[in-house]
Amino acid sequence: MALFYNFGLVDVLKKEYIENSYMIIEANYIKFIGDQAELSDYQLQKGIDLKGQTVMPGLFNLHIHALSTPIARPATLNVEDPSKFGIRGSVHLQQYLKSGVTFVRDMNGRKKAETGLKEAIRDNIVLGPEYYICGQALTMTGGHGSNTGQECDGIDGCRKAAREQLKRGVDFIKLIATGGVMSPGDNEHETQLDEEEMAAAIKEAHKVGKKTAAHAHGAEGIKNAIKAGIDSIEHGSYLDDEGIELMLKNNTALVPTLSVDYFLFRHGRQDVPQYAIDKAKRAEEAQIKSFLKAWEAGVMIGIGTDAGTPYNPHYGTYQEFVSMVDLGIKEIDVISAGTITSAKIAGVEKEQGSIEPGKLANFIVLKENPIQDIRALKNINMVYLKGNLVEIGNVEYLPHLD
Ligand SMILES: [Zn+2]
Question: Angle CA(94)–CA(99)–CA(104) in degrees, nearest 5?
Answer without folding.
Answer: 65
